[in-house]
Specification:
single chain; 13 helices; alpha+beta; 500 residues; Serine Threonine Protein Phosphatase 5, Tetratricopeptide repeat; Porin
Length: 500
């Protein structure tokens, strides 16, 4: 390791000014020698003993910090390296080492503070500029980071390869893959034998594989058997309506689904997703409740450093028994915020327009209208992204054309996806919706109140890559003070899904 003339002068000053410290200085030199030989544990013991005998000094703190850093103890390294620059006289080389340690500890604001001090003192400008680039890159300050790396290259051409490698990483993160590969190729051309060039070559190869393997389209096909205990949502008690009271409510059927996702690779922080989803349910006997429902959604968005803003827009068209039933248009501006680690918060507003294509028998029963929503959620991912817990609280206001359907109320839902082994996962979900209707019902003469509770439990078994067996049971209990809307329903589903 390079030893500045400052260290030598510092040692001589202590030796002549304080003769009693000669033994301690001799021990310090011995510790430095052990450090150079990379005998870090022996060096650490010596430095600790010297500190006990003589107290703290900037030079001793510097070597203690370096020793701890080389041993991987970054917290202790930070403590002593900070001492080395804060004590008088300061060890200027301590700034570079301290900034590097703070960067590794993700204590970026403090790192910036010492970068500013080092720049004012003009300490190792090329290395400080390089570290500044690393800190800014980790903070997501892309322009500032790139500028700092360019400055490091100008100040010291020997840093060109390392700085260009960091710039290439930034370009790759921004999905500017072509430019990143060009920079990496240039690094290899500079000097193919250096370690940086070797890393650049490997990184360029990995980017090439990513581009070649990237598929903007994803497809999903599924087919399931279903058994429904209450297809028609038959009330739990007699309603006095003969056709409804005598109707058959149990049936089996087949559910099929096709999903197509498109996510093009876009440079920069913008993103775009589109999805086409076509599902159908065909019962074996109660065909009046057969449904066919295609939907399309478009989601443009923008990624910030620790958040993402998106604007999902969707339209769903439903046929019931082969005839037009509903058309639903929805827009839901959403912001996702990374809190820390795998924890994420979500907030959104929603506007939904519901169009019913079948005319109601009275105007008061017209369900055409708009639904306004406010949503807040929390998501936690675990088991390397295979596990998920999500909870959401919503408040919905349904403004319908018919006064019998105006309502408002909160909704609370949660999902847990729990991996069990490599191929098996358990899924659990729960949902509660509380609807308080605004007006006295024109037929039943009371203000309607609904309390809807539902839950599901499922197993997902990966038979092979992209091929899954799905089993699920869903139960709904709708409670209402108007008995025609009070019912129980259980649904079992089992089927296969292929994703490619």
């Amino acid at each position: 390791m390079r030893r500045p003339i400052f260290f030598i002068l510092h040692l001589f000053f202590l030796a002549f000014a304080f003769p009693s410290h000669l033994v301690a200085l001799s021990e310090l030199e011995k510790g430095i020698e052990e450090f150079r030989r990379e005998n870090f544990e022996e060096a650490l013991d010596i430095f600790k003993k010297v500190r006990e005998d003589t107290g703290p000094s900037s030079l001793l703190s510097f070597y203690l910090g370096l020793t701890y850093k080389n041993m991987g103890d970054l917290k202790n390294a930070k403590t002593y390296l900070r001492e080395s620059v804060d004590l008088s006289p300061p060890v200027f080389d301590g700034y570079v080492e301290l900034i590097d340690v703070l960067y590794q500890l993700d204590e970026l604001l403090e790192a910036e503070k010492y970068i500013e001090r080092a720049e004012r003192l003009k300490i190792s400008p090329p290395r400080v500029a390089f570290l500044k680039g690393l800190v800014y890159a980790k903070e997501g300050k892309i322009k500032e980071a790139t500028s700092a790396f360019e400055e490091a290259k100008k100040l010291d051409p020997a840093l060109s390869q390392a700085a260009d490698f960091q710039i290439a990483i930034i370009l790759a993160k921004e999905r500017k893959i072509k430019k990143a590969r060009e920079v990496l190729s240039a690094i290899v051309t500079m000097d193919p034998k250096t370690d940086v060039a070797v890393f650049a070559k490997e990184y360029e190869a990995s980017l090439r594989k990513i581009v070649e393997a990237y598929r903007p389209f994803r497809f999903s096909l599924s087919a399931s058997y279903t058994y429904d205990t209450n297809v028609i949502s038959k009330p739990t008690e007699s309603t006095g309506i003969a056709e409804l009271d005598l109707a058959r409510k149990k049936d089996s059927g087949a559910i099929t689904n096709l999903k197509v996702d498109w996510r093009p690779l876009i440079e920069g922080n913008s993103f775009f997703m589109a999805q086409l989803n076509v599902s159908s349910t065909d019962y074996f006997r109660i065909h009046t409740y057969d449904t066919f429902s295609p939907s399309i959604s478009l989601t443009p968005g923008y990624n910030f450093r620790r958040s993402a803003l998106s604007f999902p827009l969707s339209y769903t068209y439903t046929l019931l028994d082969g005839r037009r039933y509903t058309g639903i248009t929805a827009i839901k501006p959403t912001i996702n915020i990374i809190l820390f680690g795998p924890h994420m918060a979500q907030a959104s507003l929603s506007y939904t327009k519901r169009q019913m294509f079948r005319h109601p028998y009275t105007h008061e029963e017209d369900r055409d209208g708009q639904i306004l929503g406010l949503h807040m959620g929390y998501t936690y991912s675990f088991s390397e992204g295979r596990g998920l817990f999500s909870a959401k609280l919503e408040y919905l206001k349904d403004n319908s054309e018919g006064r019998n359907w105006d309502n408002r109320g909160p909704r609370l839902s949660g999902i847990l996806l729990l991996p069990v082994g490599k191929r098996l996962s358990i899924s659990l979900s729960a949902d509660s919706l509380f609807q308080n209707y605004d007006h006295t019902h024109t037929i039943f003469g009371i203000k309607r109140k609904d309390r809807n509770y539902s839950g599901s439990a499922g197993l997902i078994f990966g038979i092979r890559d992209g091929f899954n067996l799905n089993l699920a049971y869903m139960y709904t209990r709708a409670k209402s003070n108007v008995n025609i809307y009070d019912y129980k329903r259980g649904i079992f589903q089992g089927g296969l899904e292929y994703v490619f």
